[in-house]
Amino acid sequence: MGVFDKVKNLLNKNEKKINTALDKDQVSISSNLNKQIIASGIEKTKSSFFGKIARTVAGKSTIDESDLDDIEEILITSDIGVDTTLKIINKLEERVAKDKYINTSELNNLLKEEILSLMHDFNESNINVNEPYVIMVVGVNGVGKTTTIGKLANYYKNQGKKVVLGAADTFRAAAVDQLVLWSERVGVEIIKQDMGSDPASVAFDTIQSAKSNDADVVIIDTAGRLHNNVNLMRELSKIRNVMGKVIKEAPHDVMLVLDASTGQNAIEQAKQFTQATKVDSIALTKLDGTAKGGVVIGISDQFKIPVKYIGVGEGIDDLHNFNKKEFVDSLFN
Ligand code: GDP
Ligand code: GDP
Ligand code: MG
């Protein structure tokens, strides 16, 4: 290679890094975000939540103290969770005590405001632009880890990113096959070993390959595990530590996947996992087809961890960046 080519390569490489840096500043899926799709994805939650509220306040021109008990029950049965519901009800009580009563449209506005103020927004930071960005996906069985990885890989690929998947769920042969299918569907590279091999070793290989091939994003699948299985939780730490041997900061994002349709169980899993291991972000799946979408509000309020993505279907495009305002707007409009 001549000097000229070397310089050209170097420039190209730098340009790539700079572009990556720019893109990575806005890893949000907002470009992909379609309010209508989200609205239809949470249709069941919406109709159940507001159906109940509407029935409670039907025929009333004002809401008073006695209605608040009913509203409290509705919030709790919408899977918002007890702690978060109490915060909302306290605010409503304050307001009713002050104004003596509020009308039903004020009630809606108040609910919306309070819910919005309790939820945390996602603020991406700490992305090292010089090395592959490593996402390690964890959670219990069947919550949608592998599917979410497929969708995420597709999203990044469409953004022009070089994506590598790591099949570190070596527990079942079918798990590797499932991720292979996604990699073919999306058209991204996958690193795998035989079933039963050491997941830490798969993770190591994946990150090493991603690094030497100058990939932008690495997504590591892991076997479903329960927080109370000490050995499996220890295995997670081992996988994490091995990654750090190749890229010091890896994994940059330990993403906990939770199934929204399990309602309070999802909140419980979030509690247990965050106590047992490092969790940087949450993806909430299966919001379509469940009336328990209020769980997003509870999780967003109770954990200092951002809900980054929501899944609203099994399709490749059914993953959206979570934005609290979009979500609450979809819920209330
Ligand atoms: P894993 O065991 O955590 O890897 O879960 P999988 O990715 O294998 O998903 C388990 C099942 O949930 C599969 O049938 C998926 O198609 C389905 N699934 C995943 N995400 C969603 C979602 O957002 N909506 C719906 N309706 N189904 C989903
Ligand atoms: P150990 O297996 O208990 O000694 O734990 P380690 O943290 O040393 O490694 C965990 C796994 O990651 C190992 O079993 C290897 O499969 C893999 N691993 C760690 N370091 C390397 C390495 O330098 N090269 C390769 N290929 N794999 C490694
Ligand atoms: Mg899986």
Secondary-structure map with pairings?
Layout: H1 3-24, H2 35-41, H3 43-57, E1 62-63, H4 65-77, H5 82-99, E2 102-103, H6 104-118, E3 133-138, H7 145-158, E4 163-168, H8 173-186, E5 189-191, H9 199-212, E6 217-222, H10 230-246, E7 253-259, H11 264-276, E8 281-285, H12 295-302, E9 307-311, E10 319-321, H13 324-332
Parallel strand pairs: 3-6, 3-7, 4-5, 4-6, 7-8, 8-9
Antiparallel strand pairs: 1-2, 9-10
Helix pairs in contact: 2-13, 3-4, 4-5, 5-6, 5-12, 6-13, 7-8, 9-10
This protein binds guanosine-5'-diphosphate (2 copies) and magnesium ion.
Give me the Rg, rounded. 22 Å
Mean pLDDT: 86
The CATH class assignment of the largest domain is: Alpha Beta
Count, helices? 13
Pattern of helices and strands: HHHEHHEHEHEHEHEHEHEHEEH
Fold and architecture overview:
The chain is α/β, with parallel strands linked by helices and 333 residues long. It folds into three domains: 1-41; 44-118, Up-down Bundle (Four Helix Bundle (Hemerythrin (Met), subunit A)); 133-323, 3-Layer(aba) Sandwich (Rossmann fold), CATH 3.40.50.300. It contains 13 helices and ten strands. It has helices spanning 3-24, 35-41, 43-57, 65-77, 82-99, 104-118, 145-158, 173-186, 199-212, 230-246, 264-276, 295-302, 324-332; strands at residues 62-63, 102-103, 133-138, 163-168, 189-191, 217-222, 253-259, 281-285, 307-311, 319-321. The strands form two sheets. It has an eight-stranded mixed sheet, with helices on both faces. Strand 9 (307-311) and strand 10 (319-321) form a beta hairpin. The longest helix is centred in the N-terminal third of the chain and has 22 residues, at 3-24. The chain is elongated. Bound molecules: guanosine-5'-diphosphate (2 copies) and magnesium ion. Magnesium ion (MG) binds next to helix 7.
